[in-house]
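Fold sample X.
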Amino acid sequence: MNAFVAILQLLVAAAFLSIPVVRARYGATATAGAEAELERQGVRKTVLTENGMRFDAGGHETWAPVGIATALAAVAAVNLFAGSGSWAGPFTWAVQSIVLAINCVILYSNLTAVTSVRAAFARKGGELARIDVPALLKAAEDGFPAWVWVLQNVRHVVVFGASLGVIGALIAA
């Protein structure tokens, strides 16, 4: 069972690593599209950078998924090399539950992007308050290949499915 759990955890780790890989490859194109949309709207294109909004692999878009993948790889190693009855079970339960919760937050953020960005821009006011957020986000999305949105959905299925598989295996053990 430990090997099964470790394999599922490594699948989840790989799913999380897909985020910075895709953003590193296509983020500049997405940023250019967003900046062009801002210029079309008569807003300075530097306003995104000035307010910490990015579409590339910088910042938390890299350190968070890489950190999660590293933690999962470490827990997978514990599961592979620790004997049954060790502290691997409780450790796995804790880490996998946290990863599952984090993915819920990511999914919620994806589903409410327009609303949350619009609210954040309204709070900051000024130029940000007059940005057409759906058009901005659409321009950024268009900078990524169409398959990226399929990958995003597959990533969620893998993370939710494998995490629930890990938790189910722990319960069954």
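Fold sample Y, listed below.
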Amino acid sequence: MTGLPSVDDIRADLPAVLARFRAGRTRAFSFGAGAPDAVLLTYDEFEDLGGEAKFAVGADVLEPEQLAERLAAVVDAARAGSGGPVVWGESGEPEAVILSTTQYRQLRGDDEPPPGVVDDPTVRTYATEPLPGSRPLNLDEIAELMGPEAVQDLEEIRREGNKP
């Protein structure tokens, strides 16, 4: 995968990552050694998705300088599947979280990719082609699905549209 930030890129940019999160200029993103090894997201997103109920989270909030010193070990543990979420921020305030890609999928309720498939869980693509039995609906069918009042409204609109 190209364009993926490395561990060194993130280590050198931790204060700027927080600044972008605070300003709402970035969303969760993956980083790692040529493939997505870990995910960085805001603590708010982690909390909104029920992260504290899904994972054991310590009371410690690492400062950016502390995280910079430990980041390689954190990512190695994430890659090995042995690390837990790491909460960090400034002045003891939880602002961001680092998770393994598997933990991020669990947090969001996403499926794991097939074995051997490199997948960035922060970049989701969904099949949009119609299902085999799908067919287009016309306006009358949609109105029927909505109920008798919608059918009546549609008939009234058509009558008014046909007046000279």
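Sample Y note: The longest helix spans residues 7-23.
Also: The radius of gyration is 24 Å.
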